[in-house]
Amino acid sequence: MNEMSEKTASEKVEEEEIVIDVDEPELTVEDLPGVGPATAEKLREAGFEELLAIAVMSPSELAEQAELGEAVSAKIIAGAKKMANIGGFISGSALLDRRKLVQKLTSGSSSLDELLGGGFETQAIVEVFGEFGSGKTQIGHQLAVNSILPFDKGGFDGEIFYIDTEDTFRPERIAQMAEAVGIDPQDALDRIHVARAYNSAHQILLVDEIKRMSKNIDVKLIIVDSLTSHFRAEYIGRGMLAARQQKLNKHMKELKQLSDVNNALVLVTNQVMSKPDAMWGDPTKAIGGHIVAHASTFRLYLRKSKGGRRIARLIDSPNLPDGEAVFTVTTEGLRD
Ligand code: GTP
Ligand code: MG
Predict the structure, then answer these.
(1) Nearest CA to ligand 1 atom 21
(2) What is the pLDDT of residue 90?
(3) Which ligand 1 atom is the nearest neighbour of the CA of 128?
(4) Is the link from the previous residue into 200 a cis peptide, with omega within 30 of 0?
(5) Residues of the chain scoring pLDDT < 50
């Protein structure tokens, strides 16, 4: 069995320097002025676990949701505003230092790597969306395997968390792809930690679990395949859209934080819904709308093409030109 690779002390120090605020002792709702055990419980029951969540409320909203008086709510909010870690500002040079740590992962296809400016980046969420069979899950499997490769072979030499919502993770496929790049299949499987998410609430909880486990595991890649399927199935109709988008937004923020803290890559897959009323352009649109689109650092739109080829189009990248890459899915995995 493979030992979980402990982070070295120097790596930890480095993280503390670049990741502001994350390791500070966390204040809880009990630390707020005027909050005793009963009020704390009410706040928690209403879902106000974090001070920041309270700080951004209005007194009437908080009063209603946590069943408190408005005056009390106003006092609590004022306290939360002072004490919450609003964060936000960091100098440009600190940001540049953090960017210098960005690492790039090969996909196995040089044209796809090139499209992404040299590979899939850490400190980023990459959203891969496309219709069924377009290769989203195959990309997930391939990146999981490649993350195990040493740095000089385009890998991360790290470990992987794979949240599987559709029961499509296949260890046999991992073994096949591992063998093709010269990794011991058993070693590959040992370094990929897989969890099946049974519903969206479970999916969200699994991210907390990753946060906990990543203290001892050198996580370099987190995959959520698929990001949206449970949300789409559970939150049906217009009336639930706002609630769904809020949950998705929070979920993605947590994933982004994990990617920053661990200098890791997050890969999420997303389906498209057909948009029959579209008059021109592509008749498909990703699920999750603007929330998912904005929370993703890079977006890849996959299409099937002739002869088993796949076309990936890069959309709305912060620092790269939009463009397309062609690759194939073979028995060995992703190739040009
Ligand atoms: P949904 O999850 O259904 O939305 O689809 P997806 O985008 O995740 O598709 P997926 O990545 O599962 O792609 C499936 C396709 O990959 C198959 O139709 C095959 O073309 C290809 N594929 C999967 N496994 C193999 C394999 O072992 N060998 C080869 N040659 N192709 C494979
Ligand atoms: Mg899939």
Answers:
(1) 329
(2) 76
(3) 7
(4) no
(5) 1-5, 7-24
Q: What is the CATH number of domain 95-335?
A: 3.40.50.300
Helix, coil or strand: residue 316: coil
Mutate to test the pocket of ligand 1, among 162, 300, 329 (most ligand atoms within 8 A of CB): 329
Q: Which atom of ligand 1 is nearest to 133's Cα?
A: 9
**Gap from CA of 309 to ligand 1 centroid (Å):** 11
Instruction: Dump pLDDT digits (tens) for 1-41.
Output: 444 445 444 444 343 333 333 444 568 899 998 899 999 99
Residue list, ligand 1 pocket, CB within 6 Å: 130, 132-138, 168, 271, 308, 329-331
Q: Which atom of ligand 1 is nearest to the CA of 134?
A: 7
DSSP state of 320: S
Which residue's CA is minimally distant from atom 18 of ligand 1?
133
- Which pLDDT score, from 0 to 100, does residue 3 have? 45
CB 66, CB 43: distance < 8 Å:
yes
The tens digit of pLDDT for each residue in 167-184 reads 999 999 999 999 999 999
- CATH of region 2-83: 1.10.150.20
Beta strand pairing status for 124-130 and 265-270? Answer: parallel
- Residue spans per domain, the chain: 2-83, 95-335
Whether this prediction's pTM lies above 0.85 is answered by no
* Runs of H (alpha helix) within 84-228: 92-100, 110-115, 136-148, 171-180, 185-190, 200-213
CA–CA gap between residue 112 and residue 116 (Å, rounded):
7
Question: Which numbered atom of ligand 1 lies nearest the CA of 269?
Answer: 8
